[in-house]
Amino acid sequence: MPEVAAVGASAEEQFAALVETLAADPGRRAELCGLLREDHAVYEQRGTAATVRMRGWVLLALARGGLADDALVYVLEELDTGTDAYLLAAAARALRSYPSPDAAFAPFVARALARARYYEEPVSFERYGEYALSQTGTSPLGELFRTLEWLGPRARGVLAEVEELRAQFGGLPRKLRPAADRAIESVRGRDAAPDAEACCTLPGGLGGVLSWERGSRRACGPIEQTAFEDQDGTPVTFGEFFRGRPSVVVFFYTRCDNPLKCSLTITKLGRVQKLLEERGLAGEIQTAAITYDPEFDLPERLRCYGQNRGVRTDACHRLLRVTGGFEALRRHFQLGVNFIGSLVNRHRIEVYLLDEGGRIAASFSRIHWGEEQVAARAAELHAERSVGEEEEAGPPHSPNSPKRRKGVPALLTAFTSLAVAFFPKCPICWAAYLSLFGIAGLQRIPYAPWLQPLLVVVMLINLGSLWLRGRATGRMGGFYLVGAGALTIILSKAVPGWGDASVWGVVLTLAGSLLSALGGGFRLSSASARR
């Protein structure tokens, strides 16, 4: 896209003209989505106000041509965290150009409505950069109520919130109350409301986590020696801190004026730390918050910012500033941020999960993430039980690979449970078993009744290992099934008349072992939370 790159150093008017050109050409309309990336060259050395105008114009161009799935996340992001009147209004209008209303959009619109009343002002979409007069322009609340009206009964899940906003004294300007009433009437419409679960499911899997399998994760070699300083002024390199344990990494800066981005991100990181502590993983999974603004965010400022938001700091949990190699770090993580001088002019929400080799294993970006979801995914990384970066270079399906090792406790428990269930009760049964396998002639294999309690002990030890793994990953279904099977087998041996129950114990054990080996089972807590 040579034209797009060239505009990066030219006037805003040329940028606006380029946007119009792309929007008018069906073959190039998809290029508009790329102009919404915060790290795009067109935003380099642009002031915040110019960045707002440029992004808003792109959103309006998308609205005229119809909002596609690849651009939808940028619109929802603005509704989720935006605080600028122009961008909120443009995002609300753009959402109405999506092919069909979806119940999953309703919470975003409701959150934007609750926030937009504090940023309400007239805006104009007639010409690029034009200031609006109150008589002729639109406004964030006006556009949001029209979007709510467009959603209709699909927004019934947020009806109570909207009605409460309408009923509040001084909650809405008088002139917007008719628009609010029309939206509420549309939501109350006679059409059947959609499934309640639809309200939590975004089209195309938006809002989920992006994950990379072990063999496809990018090595951290280019930033291995990137130098940091933590909240106490202690120097450390990327390799020294991030190699050895999985890590949760967020990006922020203390001068961020959007309370729904950096301040909330650091607060939520503190909550993630508590969730990991509850799982017994506080010393096994590291957390780090890296500032976009290392020249301003000195150690004392980092420490105070974290403490005020409930973040724990120690050798495994740090707030970091880069002292050398920020551009390499920016490229490696493909950070959604841009600058004017050393000041951030625009950034996205971004959270990364690193494996024990310092490689990116998963990321959450743009839309608000759930602390439970991040903690659960980090626990899964810990449960991989990998043996370091060197072994990962070996065959992906070698017998010692972490993926195979994680099923060993489950399979060993199944084997010992089967051995206990079918252990012969007397020497005659022992001889019958030997005869069955064609080895009755081996007179030197004696009956050993002491093996049965030994097998029970081994079975219980392996049950303990299954419990530990289930607790770390939050998946306990396999353990519960295997535990029930083991208890049934033990009772079948200890209680007279329960002999036939051993078959059911075997069935439960095999089912639980298979579930645990495949990584299935329900979680201890919900993977996501509605906001």
Topology:
Layout lengths: L1 H6 L4 H13 L6 H4 L13 H18 L3 H13 L3 H11 L10 H11 L23 H12 L7 H9 L9 H11 L22 E2 L15 E4 L4 E3 H5 L4 E6 L6 H20 L7 E6 L7 H9 L9 E8 L1 H8 L3 E4 L2 E5 L2 E5 L5 E6 L5 H13 L5 H4 L9 H4 L2 H14 L5 H10 L14 H23 L3 H18 L6 H17 L14
Helix pairs in contact: 2-4, 4-6, 5-6, 5-7, 6-8, 7-8, 8-10, 9-10, 12-15, 18-20, 18-21, 18-22, 20-21, 21-22
**Continuous helix count:** 22
Question: Averaged pLDDT, please?
Answer: 82
The 3D shape can be described as globular
End-to-end distance? 38 Å
Task: Give keywords.
531 residues, alpha+beta, 3 domains, 8-stranded mixed β-sheet, two-stranded antiparallel ribbon, globular, disordered C terminus
Structure description:
The chain is of the alpha+beta class and 531 residues long. The protein folds into 3 domains: 2-205, Alpha Horseshoe (Leucine-rich Repeat Variant); 210-389, Glutaredoxin, CATH 3.40.30; 406-517. It is built from 22 helices and 10 strands. The protein has helices at residues 2-7, 12-24, 31-34, 48-65, 69-81, 85-95, 106-116, 140-151, 159-167, 177-187, 238-242, 259-278, 299-307, 326-333, 371-383, 389-392, 402-405, 408-421, 427-436, 451-473, 477-494, 501-517, and strands spanning 210-211, 227-230, 235-237, 247-252, 286-291, 317-324, 337-340, 343-347, 350-354, 360-365. The protein has an 8-stranded mixed beta sheet with strand order 1-10-9-4-5-6-2-3. It starts with a helix and ends in a 14-residue tail after the last helix.
